[in-house]
Specification:
mainly alpha, two-stranded antiparallel sheet
């Protein structure tokens, strides 16, 4: 993510380096894009594999190979982990690439997480209430961190958090 200081954009992690320079673009092309493609490929392949065996999820071989992905959810919500992965990937990619303003990324992240919590509470996909409570607490913790960030950038208008 980049921050505008004056007329130039600098990398947030180290303000000595300008964004969109050759070394920065090389890093993005060599690491970010292949990493995102790899992560999405593994997720999509796993999702298709689990969807193809969705009527045999209770067998020993299915549980052994893929049970860590779906076993904590009710049988009709075997795909729920992929929804969670998609949400976290969307938030991570949005914040890493920083195509829009930091404030907007935080607001969209809050809306996504609140939507997830509402959807999860109406569907109740978890088999066990302890796992559901842990999921809720995790998402509330993430929401609190985001809200603290929103408060910080709202209270500190002297800091310029516009991103490109």
């Amino acid at each position: 993510m980049c921050t505008k200081i004056g007329e130039k954009y600098y990398i947030n992690a180290d303000l000595k380096y300008e964004c969109f320079r050759e070394s920065n673009l090389t890093f993005i092309l060599l690491f970010y894009i292949p990493g995102i493609v790899f992560w999405l490929s593994i997720t999509i392949i796993s999702m298709f594999k689990i969807f193809s065996i969705r009527h045999k999820l209770h067998t020993f071989s299915s549980l052994y190979k893929y049970g860590y992905i779906y076993s904590e959810y009710k049988e009709t919500y075997f795909y729920w982990e992929f929804i969670r992965i998609a949400i976290r990937t969307l938030i991570a990619v949005g914040s890493i690439l920083g195509v829009i303003s930091y404030f907007l990324i935080l607001v969209v992240s809050v809306l996504i997480l609140i939507s997830y919590l509402i959807c999860a509470s109406t569907c109740s996909p978890h088999k066990y209430s302890r796992i559901w409570k842990l999921d809720v607490l995790t998402n509330i913790s993430i929401l609190l961190v985001i809200l603290i960030n929103l408060h910080y950038i709202t209270v500190s208008p002297s800091l310029n958090y516009s991103s490109t």
